[in-house]
Amino acid sequence: MAACARLTRALLVPGATLGGPRLPGLRWLSGSVGPGQAVYDVVVAGGGMVGTAMACALGHNVHFRDKKILLLEAGPNKVLGKLPATYSNRVSSITPGSATLLSSFGAWDHICNMRYKPFRRMQVWDACSEALIIFDKDDLDDMGYIVENDVIMSALAKQLDAVRDQVEVVYKSKVISYTWPGPFLDAETSPWVQITLANGRQLQTKLLIGADGHNSGVRRASGIQNVCWPYDQSAVVATLHLSEPTDNNVAWQRFLPSGPIALLPLSDTLSSLVWSTSHEHAAELVSMEEENFLDAINSAFWSDASHTDFIDSAGSVLQYAFTLLQPTNSSARQLPPSVAKVDPKSRTLFPLGMGHAVEYVRPRVALIGDAAHRVHPLAGQGVNMGFGDISSLVRHLSRAAFNGKDLGSLSHLTEYETERQRHNVSLIAATDLLKRLYSTTLSPLVLLRTWGLQTTNAVSPLKEQIMAFASK
Amino acid sequence: MTPWLFSDKGIMCLKSNNIIFAYSDKMKSYRYVGMRLYSTSKTVDPKEMKTFKALAYKWWDEQGAYAPLHSMNDLRVPFIRDNLLKTVTNHQLESPLSGMKILDVGCGGGLLCEPLGRLGALVTGIDPLNENIKTAQQHKSFDPVLDKRIQYNACSLEDIVEETVETFDAVVASEVVEHVNDLETFIQCCCQVLKPGGSLFITTINKTQLSYALGIIFAEQIAGIVPKGTHTWEKFVSPEELESLLEPNGFLVQTITGMLYNPFSGYWRWTENTSLNYAAHAIKSSAPVETEEHHTKTPGIDGQEASQK
User: What general EC class does the enzyme of this chain belong to (chain A) (predicted)?
Assistant: First the structure.
């Protein structure tokens, strides 16, 4: 698949005109809709982790107690009756900032009662050199948490159920169309967003929040352009059993030329694998024998085959210099635990890509989560950016509600957009840059990144800044 | 009687004042000869109504001619809400104004009535211009909650004084007193319709050289922030004059604070300086009323204090 930029074009309806800037949708109403339909204040389209968390956060918000909220989800209800003994293979790294959001409406307690694994340290190193960087907090606090996606969904669904008087949830609902009012309102056209479901039900809402993933239908229907390109990589995930039980509170990531491989702790004996590599290699990994698969993982972490003498000596020169300047700062490379077994049905793969919506908001619509941005998993930031979007949007909507404003008004929505784009664009750019930088074996770039990594590791304030930015 | 003409390209000329508005949007062209004069009223000025009539349908375009008024809601709604909340002991945060009856005099297209309605109040909006009331009514009709909480009437304040004696918890006269003919009668009518201890909220423009330079010359004629002909400098009211009219007519002035508009960002902010726009809060004093000064931050608002007079 060629990696090339493409802009997704919205559907063009014959006869519609693009009037003025920031007008949502190229499809608008020409007639009126029945007056008897309920008008929702907020409809969240998409019941994944981010959509459900958004609906939860609004439902638990004190200024939204008299408002009507609806969550539309195409799949079934995800509350786990009983926690399954086997771990799921899709996990997320949750930052302390996201954990704060989840605890603000009580979902974090459910997660703690189910299962999660805090980690205290992260070691990231290169396959082509000795350079490494270690992140940890001075006070040995938890840096982040590894939680299975199913556990998060279940906790969110439970909290959503707790506010079922305010938040209506429609499962297994497929949306056929979204329509926005045109720019020239007259006496008959309703100023609200009209949503038509597959079962014929029609809804109206003052604000539509699109949380429907990177192929967002809301984003398409509203005419927001998306800058995206597919990476030439797929991610292989699996649940692995360690050879021997250990404290397992370290997250490991090694940058191989084919892509980063990461081992995330799940429990004292289990870890989750996320290995981003080329599509062919990924397909091989998923279908090969268990023993070969385990060997491949272990050697990916341990083998120094990609080292070259030149880089090694250049790296050790700089390392020696740092040791002279800061003798107390020792960063000896540690090796991750070896893996002995893989859960039989846990090996799977999914393709990776990058995406960023040019606008996050238009009148009466806002995008959050993967609908607004899609990122490579190497930084573990995907869902955390979504939770950050939720924090920001809930704050702005809450203030708007307390001021009696029309929730779909662009004035506060653009404040959310500015705030989040500033954060997200830098993070996505940095992640994309890292991915490209580490995908090569060309000596000059390897040298650059070796020295860069060693320097960053040695300069503590810089490391702290990076951790602070990524933990929001 | 001045004939108004709308040409095909949407250029409207108000011949008597030589004011030209240019609209580039598609617009129906129509001819409108003559003008309905309203019944003689001491407070309503017919000349003022001419200007507003032309823009009746533009009220709800948030980026249009009334954009500054829309963004002024960010200041005046919290101002009204927070000062009213001080008079009640317990309230729910999600419907802070529920149970309150508010009268919005000169409501225009209902820009201020709707937020107050969303906060739970029962709002009566009055405006002498029928077109404004029609626009307001049409706009609220789509929202079932607001439809029940707000009612509009095309009339002037004096018309309703008799039926509504001591009915309202608050009267809001926002951007209105600089358009009325007889301010003293207006204030007396406000006093009559308010319950004892009720609040009067006024936002208006000060009568200073600065307000002439910025408010009339810059805002109207140069930058077009305010449609031309909207304001007459002679009718601006200074805070001192306002206070001197409020105190003898049964009011105790609680707060006067300045407001400043940034035409580049489109946002308003509070300021100490009242030489341009300002907001005033007064309480009808027939019943024993607290007049302590407050320096409180209301929960849920960021950084906005109700300052002392």
Answer: oxidoreductase
Dihedral angle, C-alpha B92, B96, B102, B106, nearest 10 °: -160
pLDDT for B55 = 66
**Rounded to the nearest 5°, which phi and psi values hold at A179?**
-135, 135
Decide if pLDDT at A420 tops 70: yes
ipTM over 0.85: no
- Residues of B whose CB is below 8 A from A190: 142
Distance CA A155, CA A106 (A): 9
**Hey, is the C-beta of A288 within 8 angstroms of any chain B C-beta?**
no
First to last CA, chain A: 34
Chain B CB contacts of A64 below 8 Å: 94
Q: Spell out the domains of chain A, with CATH numbers in brackets.
A: 38-121+137-231+344-471 (3.50.50.60)
- The Cα–Cα gap between A162 and B233 comes to 58
Residue closest to A156 by CA, chosen among A92, A233, A89: A92
- Tens digits of residue pLDDT in B48-70: 777 666 666 688 888 888 889 99
Q: Residue B204 and residue B185: Cα distance in Å, rounded?
A: 17
CA distance A237 to B101: 61
A309 inside 8 A of chain B by CB: no
Q: Which residue in B26, B94, B138 is closest to A65 by CB distance?
A: B94
Sort out which chain B residues have CB atoms less than 8 A from A19's CB and list them.
25
Domains of chain B: 46-284 (3.40.50.150)
Residue B115: DSSP 8-state: H
Report pLDDT for A185: 63
Alpha helices, H only, chain B: 46-54, 67-85, 113-118, 130-140, 144-149, 157-161, 183-193, 209-210, 239-246
- Residue spans of alpha helices (H) in A198-248: 217-221
Which residue from B minimizes the CA distance to A363?
Answer: B62
Tokens (6 digits) for B127:
């405006």
Structure tokens at B39: 């019944």
What's the gap in Å between the CA of B302 and the closest CA on chain A? 9
Query: Which band of pLDDT confidence, cut at 50, 70 and 90, is reported for residue B277?
Result: very high
Q: Is B166 annotated as a binding residue?
A: no
Using the 8-state DSSP alphabet, how is residue A334 labeled? P
| Axis-axis angle for helices B183-193, B239-246 (nearest 10) | 50
CB within 8 Å of A47: residues ≥ 6 apart: A55, A71, A72, A73, A74, A75, A78, A169, A171, A211
For the entire predicted model, the pTM comes to 0.84
Residues of B whose CB is below 8 A from A66: 94-95, 120
Determine if residue B99 is left, alpha or beta; phi over 0 gives left, psi from -120 to 50 gives alpha, anything else beta: left
DSSP B234: G
Number of A to B CB contacts under 8 A, please give it: 66
Confidence of residue B301 (pLDDT cuts 50, 70, 90): very low
In the beta sheet, which residues pair with residue B146? none
